[in-house]
Design brief:
By secondary structure, this protein is α+β, with helices and mostly antiparallel strands. The protein has two domains: 111 residues, 2-Layer Sandwich (Beta-Lactamase); 225 residues, 4-Layer Sandwich (Phosphatase 2c, domain 1). 37% of the residues lie in helices and 29% in strands. The protein has nine helices and 16 strands. The strands form three sheets. Strands 6-7-16-15-12-13 form a six-stranded antiparallel sheet. It has a five-stranded antiparallel sheet with strand order 2-1-5-4-3, with helices on both faces. Strands 8-9-10-11-14 form a five-stranded antiparallel sheet, covered by helices on one side. Strand 12 and strand 13 form a beta hairpin. The protein starts with a helix and ends with a strand. The model has no long low-confidence stretch (mean pLDDT 88).
Length: 380
């Protein structure tokens, strides 16, 4: 079988291409293969020229090639991903560009092959890396679900006795958060409360919050004065979690319904509110600074003693309640919350809590951007 004249004239051009090139007749017998093609396959020229290429492929691969050849014949050309056989076994991934030409009444197929083995290897490595990342992501999500369950177990339930009730709400902005609420009741007449806000959000804040919860719960059960408790927490944050950059604000109250009195202490926290029906709520300001920043953050006059009356409401909250903005960019702030508390202070305690949350949500544009905690104590 003689080589077509046009092919003999084109060989020099085809030899200098960086891509593998073959020319085949209408029976798909290879008439020409350039040097680059021989390098890509490692198959000697004498094993290629005029040989049936189907011998290099499985039946499924050859069926696919035959279909592509038919497409090229009908359309004049096509492009697809495939593989080249390599001498001694193996496959080289390539992009095949195939076209059909007519010359002197005969049909010829010209195909060029671009080596994409590096790209394919990179894609396989990327897929493997993505699979590992996905597996790790699933582990992290499971850890977060467990952490969220643990943190939810620390959230106080609503409590009610003849002389007093406690209604609490907690919603982290992420799966886990840095706010926590602690309630310890020595009996149905006395209750100790503490609400903390750890700086930041997410896992780091949640870990610190859980550790502080454990520390604080023991102090609360022992009846430790708030001045001493704040001092211990401040040293713990500075010395035991040094370099973390974490600090907390806190509000604590110890209420004796029988004696109608309350001891309150705050550290860098938004002011608590003492609400009485029909009156503007009284603000109980923090006298100590945030804990974990300075050694002398706790003020010697941290404790405030407050006389209570029947039907008093004590409202403790974190800044996720007050630092919310409406569509005009106005912040609700302490005064805005104070007005909501004033308007709802005659309602039953559980309704009052929900109306406060509804009022904050009505002011806020969009979803919460910070952890939200609210505690409402009703002294009957």
């Amino acid at each position: 079988m003689e080589k077509p004249e046009w092919l003999s004239q084109m060989e020099a051009v085809l030899e200098v291409l960086n891509e593998g090139v073959i020319v085949a007749n209408e029976r798909l017998q290879i008439l020409f293969a350039n040097t680059r093609f021989l390098e890509m396959t490692g198959i000697p020229r004498e094993e290629l020229i005029y040989f049936d290429p189907s011998q290099f492929y499985s039946s499924q691969e050859w069926d696919f090639l035959s279909q592509q050849a038919d497409v090229a014949f009908r359309t004049g050309g096509n492009r697809y991903n495939f593989v080249l056989p390599r001498n001694g076994g193996g496959r080289l991934p390539v992009i095949v560009s195939s076209r059909t030409i007519q010359y002197s009444g005969a049909t010829f197929r010209i195909a060029t092959y671009t080596d994409i083995s590096e790209q394919t290897r990179a894609e396989e490595e990327l897929r493997a890396a993505n699979a590992k990342l996905q597996a790790r992501q699933m582990e992290i999500e499971e850890d977060l679900r467990l952490a969220a369950r643990v943190q939810r177990s620390l959230a106080p339930k609503s409590l009610a006795w003849d002389s007093m009730s406690v209604d609490a709400f907690y919603q982290p902005v992420h799966s886990v958060g840095g706010d926590f609420v602690l309630v310890d009741s020595m009996d149905h007449e006395q209750v100790s409360l503490m609400l903390c806000d750890v700086s930041g959000h997410g896992i780091g804040s949640a870990l610190v919050a859980n550790r502080i919860y454990s520390e604080t719960a023991a102090h609360m059960r022992s009846g430790m004065p708030f001045l001493d408790m704040f001092g211990k927490l401040n040293r713990f944050l500075i010395e035991d979690i040094a370099g973390s950059g974490m600090f907390i604000t806190a509000a604590a109250a110890r209420i004796d319904a029988r004696q109608r009195c309350m001891v309150f202490a705050g550290a860098g926290h938004p002011p608590a509110m003492l609400a009485r029906p029909g009156q503007i709520p009284v603000l109980l300001e923090s006298r100590s600074m945030i804990l974990g920043a300075l050694p002398d953050a706790v003020d010697a006059t941290a404790n405030q003693e407050v006389q209570l009356q029947p039907d008093d409401r004590i409202v403790l909250y974190t800044d996720g309640i007050t630092e919310v903005f409406n569509s005009r960019g106005d912040m609700l702030g302490i005064e805005g919350l104070q007005e909501i508390v004033h308007q709802t202070s005659s309602l039953p305690a559980h309704e009052m809590k929900q109306r406060i949350l509804d009022g904050v949500a009505a002011w806020r544009e969009g979803p919460p951007t910070d952890d939200v905690s609210l505690m409402l104590v009703h002294v009957r």
